[in-house]
Structures are given as structure tokens and as C-alpha cells.
Write a structure and sequence with these properties.
About 30% of the residues lie in helices and about 15% in strands. The chain is α/β, with parallel strands linked by helices. The structure holds zinc ion. The site of zinc ion has 4 residues, from loops.
């Protein structure tokens, strides 16, 4: 039943009534299933080695996660983060050819980023590929040899419109300068989308755990989805099925790395309920927009602004857990209040937070940042992670009091008491118990 290429499935499985899909288990033609956990698949010299942290991209080696030519694969996992699953559905339903290779004509970045010395340090960037946007350029000789190397970063340009900025223009807080802010209030930005590419020894070191521990936990907690995590310790790179990062750059990109020009940065973790739909239970959207305003102001005085948006919904616990916690908070005895804010999350999720800010500064090092003049965040975890990674922070900017929705007082006071940056004294346990949120209307 097996051959040197892996598995040869000839068994027939029951086909659900009404199904029209061809599968490995149904047609007359049996199909090869390549088990990547068989190391003999990779003994081929066609798989290029990766030396993480090398300055020369060809010496570093390309990330090859495509399944179009399995002998070239030199990593664990698949491209596109969680969207690999939709790609699988597209292939299964016959709308996407599994051997499709992207035509990368005209897809090059709109602005240049790097390379910087941080790219050549195996410990500075461990959670994505710094060369991810330059694939077509730096790996051209290998692409010409038919290696299917795909970008894991894309950089484009956009005009963005935020209703709050119209108000800021009317209030004279920002000006229409015709370059960064167009007449009518459109913001001109360059933005980068980044997919996760984990260098497992580096991720393990950042979290202070053994690489083997992290491999086993990843294998088990994904239901055994990636056997190579435990069978292929020689493969050091893992493309996890998680969301990525989007970076919004305002102003002159060259100002980001110029020590004589100011830089404003907000690092924001996704909160769909507030960011998109305007929920008033937290400060996410108002603080994000305040960050955009600070970025515009800093760009307009000759500097630059950077908003980094991480897909780590609900402190990376996910939205289902988040909504369960909202209910638990609002239905608990004594109602939603700041002194019980963190314990309700812990009751449901088992932890208060799973964002692991230790990996967050990578994106700042990719941008070549060494100093942040205005850091638009009160998070002590983000601040500590950035400063511990070697970036200087000059000023921390809290959210203005008048931008905090009434129902979000519970969250912000609880966070300040737990160590968030504040210019005022934090509340005592008795004071926190008096900060109450709205009840549910049952
Ligand atoms: Zn929020």
C-alpha cells in the first residue's frame, strides 16, 4: 500500500449521498497522499536549506511552503495563515487548481522597507520573514529555476476615510495639507500585510521555553494538524494557521528610521466589536483613532506615524470566549465592575491574556525602528516588550478621558490598577468595586 513517495490509498470510503466532489477516497483513480512527516520526502537535495538571520537572502534561503512541488518544501505548515483552509475548500470544490502558481507581475511594494541590520539578527525577528515582501526580487534566480516561492508580505497604498478625522479637521486638530491629508479629509497611507512565519527556536527562546515543549504543544493543541512539528526537528520554520499583521504608515517612510525626525506608533490588537462596529464596552476604536490622529500630527511636522494592527481578537482568546466573558461579567452577583474585571476572563478562559507581546516588537524591528517618540498605548505589557527588545520609548500617550465610553470605565480602571500607564493615581480595591458597567437587558 505504500511506496517511496509516501502513502498510496486504494481503499474506498463511503460517499455521502448527493456528493459530486471527487475525493481521494472515491473515484476509480487512487490518489497519492504525501505524508510530510516521512523524512525521506525531504532528503532530496531539491529542498533548499534555511539559515535564519543571515543578511544575504540567498544564504538565508527562501521559505517554501507551497504544495505544488512537495520536494521543494523546507518548512512546516502552509501559506496564508488561517486562509489555507479556504484554499483547501476551493481546491476540493474544483474552483482552484491545486498546482496554480501566482503570477507576481506588478505586485512589488509601493514603498521600500529595509533591509536593516535587525533583519540579519536571528533573535530580533522570529515571527515572520523579513524578506517576505522582496521575494520576487531577491529570489529571482531561484524563481527562474521553477521554485514556487511566495511573498509572505505585501505592501500597497490606500486612501482611508475615518469619520472621527473629519471632526478632528473641523476642530483644527489636524490640517488638510494636500499630501498626507487630502482635501475632504482622505488620509494617504502605505500599508503592509504580513503573514506569520515562525522560526521555532527563536519563538521558544522569546517565550523562555524549550523548542521541544513548544513543538509538542502546537502539535497537540491543533489536534495533531502538523505532525512534522514532532517528527521533523530538522525543519525549524512553521507557518502557523493564525491571523497576521497589518501595518499602516503615515507620512514619509524614510522618517521612520531617521533619528532626527519624530515617530508616533500605536500597536493595536484587533477588537472587531469596537474597531468596526463601535461597541462601547471597551476603548479600542476611540484609542485606535486617537492613535491615527497622533500619527497624522507627527507626520505633518516632518516625521512619520505607524499603526500596527494585530489579528489577536479578544486578547487572542477569540470572539466566542470574549462574548462569554461579557455575559459572565454583566450577570455576576453585584454586576459588571472593575474589581472583578480580570477574574471573569480567567473563569472562562483559564488565563487573562494570550497575546504574547514578546513576539510583537518583531514588526517594529522589521521597520528599522530604534526610537519611538510618541507611544500611543497604556499597555505595560506592550511597553515592556518593546523596551526590552532594545527600542527606546520617549513619551507614552494615554487615551484622553473624554474618549472613554461610559461602559468602558470598568475595563480602563481595572487595567490601570493592574499596571497600565496612567498620569493619575489608580483606584483602590474599594474604588474599583464602585466602577460599574451597564447591565444586560434580559
Ligand atoms: Zn475592545
Amino acid at each position: 500500500m505504500t511506496d517511496s513517495n509516501g502513502f498510496h490509498l486504494a481503499a474506498k470510503a463511503p460517499t455521502p449521498p448527493g456528493t459530486k466532489l471527487k475525493s481521494a477516497f472515491s473515484g476509480a483513480q487512487p490518489r497519492h497522499i504525501v505524508l510530510t512527516s516521512h523524512s525521506n520526502r525531504f532528503s532530496s537535495s531539491a529542498a533548499l536549506p534555511i539559515q535564519w538571520g543571515k543578511a544575504d537572502p540567498l544564504e538565508r534561503g527562501p521559505i517554501i511552503a507551497t504544495v505544488t512541488d512537495p520536494v521543494h518544501r523546507n518548512v512546516i505548515g502552509a501559506h496564508s495563515g488561517s486562509y489555507a483552509v479556504y484554499r483547501a475548500l476551493a481546491v476540493a470544490s474544483g474552483v482552484l487548481q491545486p498546482d496554480h502558481r501566482p503570477d507576481l507581475t506588478n505586485t512589488a511594494p509601493t514603498v521600500p522597507i529595509g533591509p536593516y541590520s535587525s533583519w540579519a539578527d536571528p533573535n530580533k525577528i522570529v515571527s515572520f520573514d523579513p524578506f517576505g515582501a522582496l521575494v520576487s526580487e531577491v529570489f529571482r534566480p531561484l524563481l527562474d529555476q521553477a521554485y514556487d516561492i511566495r511573498p509572505t508580505i505585501a505592501i500597497t497604498q490606500a486612501h482611508i476615510q475615518l469619520p472621527e478625522l473629519q471632526t478632528a479637521i473641523r476642530q483644527g486638530l489636524i490640517q488638510e495639507d494636500g499630501v498626507i491629508v487630502k482635501p475632504g479629509g482622505d488620509l494617504v497611507v502605505n500599508k503592509a500585510a504580513i503573514e506569520p512565519v515562525w522560526y521555532l527556536p527563536g519563538v521558544a527562546a522569546r517565550l523562555g521555553v524549550d523548542e521541544e515543549e513548544i513543538r509538542y504543544a502546537l502539535f497537540e493543541q491543533t489536534g495533531g494538524m502538523f505532525p512534522e512539528l514532532v517528527t521533523r526537528p530538522d525543519l525549524k520554520i512553521f507557518l502557523p494557521p493564525i491571523g497576521g499583521i497589518t501595518v499602516y504608515i503615515l507620512g514619509d517612510v524614510a522618517a521612520i528610521t531617521d533619528p532626527n525626525r519624530p515617530l508616533a506608533v500605536r500597536v493595536h490588537d484587533e477588537c472587531n466589536g469596537s474597531d468596526v462596529f463601535g461597541s462601547d464596552i471597551c476603548t479600542c476604536r476611540p484609542y485606535l483613532v486617537h492613535g491615527v490622529e497622533a500619527c497624522v500630527q507627527t507626520a505633518q511636522v516632518g516625521g512619520a506615524g505607524v499603526i500596527v494592527y494585530f489579528r489577536k481578537e479578544g486578547r487572542a482568546l477569540g470572539e466566542v470566549t470574549k462574548f462569554l466573558v461579557y455575559n459572565a461579567r454583566k450577570r455576576q452577583q453585584g454586576g459588571d465592575r472593575a474589581d472583578a474585571y480580570f477574574s471573569r476572563t480567567e473563569c472562562v478562559a483559564g488565563v487573562q491574556d494570550m497575546r504574547f507581546q514578546e513576539l510583537m516588537p518583531d514588526v517594529l524591528h522589521w521597520l528599522g525602528i530604534t526610537q519611538i517618540d510618541r507611544f500611543i498605548s497604556m499597555s505595560d505589557m506592550k511597553y515592556n516588550a518593546i523596551v526590552n527588545s532594545g527600542i527606546k520609548i520617549v513619551e507614552r500617550v494615554p487615551i484622553p478621558e473624554d474618549l472613554i465610553p461610559a461602559d468602558a470605565k470598568v475595563e480602563i480602571e481595572a487595567k490601570k490598577a493592574a499596571g497600565y500607564y496612567s498620569e493619575h493615581q489608580t483606584l483602590s480595591p474599594e474604588g474599583l468595586a464602585r466602577v460599574k458597567g451597564r447591565k444586560l437587558v434580559d
